[in-house]
Amino acid sequence: MALRSLLTTAERGQILAIPAATADLAARYTLSEADMSLIRQRRGEANSLGFTVQLALLRHPGVALAEDTEVPPELISWLASRLAVSAQAWADYGQREETRQEHGREIRAYLGMSAFGIADFRQLVEHVGAVAAQTDKGLLLVEGARDLLRARKVALPGVSVIERACAQALTRANRNIYATLCEQLSVEHCKRLDGLLLRRPESSSTEIGWLRQAPLRANARAMNEHIDRLTTWRALDLPWAAARLVHRNRLLKLAREGASMTAADLAKFEPARRYATLFAMAAESMATVTDEIIDLHDRIIGRLIRTAQNKQNQATLASRSTVTAMMRMHSRLGDALFEAKKNGEDPFAAIETAIGWESLAESIAQAKKLTKPAFEDHLALVSAHFTTLRRYTPAFLAVLDLHAAPAAQDLLAAINLIRALNTTGARRIPEDAPTSFIRPRWKPLVFTDDGVHRGFYEFCALAELKNALRSGDIWVTGSRQFRDFDDYLLASDDYTGIKNSGKLPLITTDGSPQYLEGRLALLQKRLKEVNDLAARDELPGVLVTEKGVKITPLETIVPAYAQPLIDQVSAMFPRIRITDLLMEVDSWTGFTRHFTSLKSGHPSKDRQLLLTAILADGINLGLTKMAESCTGVTYARLDRHQASYIRDETYSAALAELVNTQHGHPFAAQWGDGTTSSSDGQRFRAGSKAESTGHVNPKYGAEPGRLVYTHVSDQYSPFHSKLVNVGDRDATYVLDGLLYHESELQIQEHYTDTAGFTDHLFALMHLLGYRFAPRIRNIGDTRLYTPANDSGLTTLAPLIGGSINTTTIALHWDEILRLAASIKTGTVTASLMMRKLGAYPRQNGLALALRELGRLERTLFLLDWLQDPGLRRKVTAGLNKGEARNTLARAVFFNRLGEIRDRSFEQQRYRASGLNLLTAAIVLWNTVYLDRAVATLTSSGGDIDPDLLRFLSPLGWEHINLTGDYTWPRTSHIKPGKYRPLRRPAKP
Prior knowledge:
two-stranded antiparallel sheet; alpha/beta; 39 helices; single chain; globular; about 5% strand; 15 strands
């Protein structure tokens, strides 16, 4: 029988936890009259109380009373008071083992329960096996087993018995997965998989190591190398359809496990496990390479267009003096001609006298040069890069299996034509070539007097292909990020079943059209209310005129009279090294227990080594430099520990532990109740090896970079972060943080800045049950929309941009709900759908309908914004917390000049996750010591206005030593339950 331990000590304690809080006791253990009748049949206080305790425990959590069962004294006292007996009688119960067993049998018969036996154990293994085929998370498996026994009214055995059954089921599930995959592999397939572990000729890397390398740069050479990788994967000719026989979670787990090991480790696996692991790695890597090839094409096209634009700008600047001279000359020419006309003189003589014919001819030649297409549109300059495209596009188009929606069929036909021309070597574009996809801006370049220009036609088609892949109008077989749009959503039958049963996980559970009608009626009502207030000039701090709207700026959020208290409390923080801070926070929360081994599922036994690896991520020092700065640690040990324990999911679980602790701390209530949040992006430059992986956004300059998009609660805790491309709009990732964080926060209202909203997001936020409140820059330029043309809104007329197309919303109402339900249920990630919906040129019905619904919700929000200064103040305060957290993050992430320099996207993600975990730890530590500082000032007779406490912030770092050698104390000199002494304000 498998002996693998699936649960941590904390998890083992929560599975069959017996409640102790008074409210929980009342909810779980209130006795009925039938219960009291049965209890009265016992003789003596000890038997009555003991019988009642057994009855309570079998009801919840469903366990039989054993000799070693620890019953909370709160439960005993609560039940004793209901029976009007002494709680001391509990000590006399069960002196005869037979009495306890007889009571247990009688209670089970009364409750209709049975004792746990070997048959139940076997059924448990069978049931959990089905769940283990989908996930290997020990807590989920044990909770599922517990719930099954409760549903079957079987008295629960000890946690160790349930855990042993789940471990056995998981072992069987793993073997079944290996067998399922290996059954599809022939002897030849296995030989090819074994070949992946061999070293490449004249190289130090193995075949699988080379195949899994990320592209070095966004250029033709890197593209061709990556196409070679995809071609090599496909040449294995494995039964790729077998990947669908295993649940996606388990296949991904297999691939990740294999990726964390060396080729030598994989070679030591027993055959079934080795081939299953290698197949999983192959299937996942092939999809990854496909997506990376498409991303490379996207970046190359974008870079070539930016280069052309820069050349045009440089040419324009260089021609400024020439244009100025021409204008002066033409001004003199004009004056001379008008003077000649006025005096009846010969105009040609006037030209000769004023500027001369040679100068005029030279000026005309310069004018013709400056009005060539290259000066009018930078796209003309991409012709200089046709050679770059030709280096990779034939192989690029040949290796992708493209399919198109009806809207992009003409573009796909053009791509197929280019493929054919590449194959045959023909150079001219035929007269009947597809051209409807060519936008007006390209037409002067594509269509010439000599026919269709091959270079511009091909570049235009490739640029439009980039856009169509983004939007989903064209999709790729074998890709994860660029699949058919419909494949991402809930199956139509599943959606219909959920809707018809009234269980849609949305704000409208049955999807009734009446809900939409109610929103439109509300909008009509609110428009009239605000219009009337504006007409009477009764909107607080808002003035609506014919020129638009003007809103009085808010006063400083932190008043000057709060600064003395802020300074006084900040000066009381103990000085501390970052290593000591992490150890202290871990002693409070045990967050390191969530960093479990990829192989065994157990937490790390070397807490200091684990914290060293986390710190290397968080302060951006890297493992090599950290090994040099930390005594007794080597790079090899750090690298092995990182590979085994540090992953996205372990970082997320540890972050949730810190956020939950912060949420439960009494002082955090000074800042909010954890129901509101804000999000913002923070750019970090991509330098060194990461420079080629970074993206460019003109908003941040011409240097490549990465963006860390972070969600911060009203209690200052950063509960979610994600590493994204700087070219993506912030609004793409707003929903991810709200839907996929693992903390106990129940966010109801969310704030962003201008970059964090789109009409699509307004619609989805409302459907998913969130109040969305972005701070919109230049709100006077933002339009209101009405349900229908309404001539009665005279005062608001300057702000109205049109009417909402309710017909389009009604026509696609079911599609909107299906999309929202797919996001809510986790069928597809919100950011992926947001990217596709917002990508040009997606003008399909769903995108348009969602935009119209978003205009409705945005108008309702703007009406609230105009009417409610409290909302404006609350949003500003929320965003200020996020911006202040970014300042802390910048201070912590100081090594390597604050640049992300890791080539691997995985390592870059770990940097972002480590930074967020570190800032969350600092926020929690500061919160604890803020509470102690305030308590100290109060107890010493200080008169503190309670209203000022909300202006204190846990984001300071001046007292934290972030630099130097990173040493860990062998044992903490701070005893459990004790804290560091505060500094006196007079002695900072």
